[in-house]
Design a protein that fits this description.
Number of strands: 13
Strand order of the largest sheet: 6-3-2-7-8-9
Radius of gyration: 23 Å
Strand content: 5-15%
Largest sheet: 6 strands, parallel
Shape: globular
Amino acid sequence: MTIIADQGRPSGAGILHLGLGSFHRAHQAVYTRGALQAADGPWGIIGVASRSHTVVDALHAQDLRYSVATIAPDGISLSVPGVHTDAFVGADEPARVVAHIADADIRIITLTVTENGYGYSPATQHLDLDDDGIRADLRGEAPRTTIGQLARGVQARAAAGGAPLSILSCDNLAANGKHTEKLVREFLHELPDAEGADALAFLDRAVTFPSSMVDRIVPATTPELRTRVRALLGADDAIPVPAEPFSMWAIEDRFAGGRPAWDAAGAVFTTEVGRYEQMKVRLLNGTHSLIAYLGALRGAHTIPEAIGTDPIAQAALAVLRGEYEPSIRMPSDVDIREYESQLFERWGNSALGHRTSQVGTDGSVKLGQRIPEPALLTLGRGEMPHLIALTVAGYLSCLAPLAGFDPGADAAAMTDPARERLRAAAASARDGHDLARRVIADMQLFGTELAGQDAFIARVGDLVDVIRRRGVDAAIMDALDASQTLTKEMQP
């Protein structure tokens, strides 16, 4: 066991972070501490929680300190990043968010608000003008959506003289920098009477939106972890963050007003962020989703429990190699077999205890980033992506179980912004085929292109019915037997 001492608070704040959750505190905050150890600078972080007071109140009670518990099978190490200079709740003080974005001292805004926090339609990939929050922000109310806050903050910054700024998304969205910029611009274009014209001109000359890929498994904090941290630290920490040893951050080096030396802490500045994104979102996240849904249906509480069973391990390897790997171009400096081996080692980290219910949450948004393109590419080759279809069937079986089917407690614990619509579809569906059609074709939950793939929809429906009638193991074997890429011996 190792304890890395707090290095002291930064001299000033140059970063505003939106989304003060566990991932940010175990990832960007840790990299920023490493950067400040290598090269001092005004790169302290003002953290903004969306709605919850839990982390904010605890930070203020603990002098803005917390611990990161890095958990490996052979032990635990603790560090105290100590990089936050303030924290508050954005929903309570939306005008303060705008004021900080307008402040010339803030040079970078980072975001971890999840895929669901960008106020866009997954089907169209454009700003969701039917969203109540977006509409309220466009009317001029104190902005409460992420895109509304960014757009109104950029307006205020432009009016105050326009110091250069970079807005860095750290969420699992394809081309997340371009995606964020597009949504901010769409918001400003929607303002009446050319109200957003000055802000749009400011974006053109002084604001950049670098893309990035972030990767670290960060499970939920448990009472058991708090007890363990208390024993190791000899002090209470209400908000310790558990994390795996592995960590990766690939960033496009386009910063208008400078940046910390994140590369000194292990971040990679690269022109291949898009390749890193595909590698992570499909190989890690896409396969992770399959493991979570099949595991939950099998009664596995954690990801290590799920991947430790032969049927799920075989399905994970088959979807990884046969359906996701052909859809990507690996970064030039990453060996695909070494990365694959790391994935299975990470999923099998039994000390971490990452819950299937946590990984399976928000699937309606997450899967929209992970499955459509690989599925469409496979279908375009004249082949059926049986394991991707199984992922969707597992998701529907967990979140929208048909009458008489009990998916279990871990599936019931998953939350999803589309859950009520999914339940309504399941309540009126005759069978798996009908459910798949209602969700994929009618609701277009995974985009417009996949909505028109009748054969894929039928395959998902087949597998939903197999899960319901014969169980999840039978569905796994059905998909594996049908797959042309079945690998019986896992050798990652």
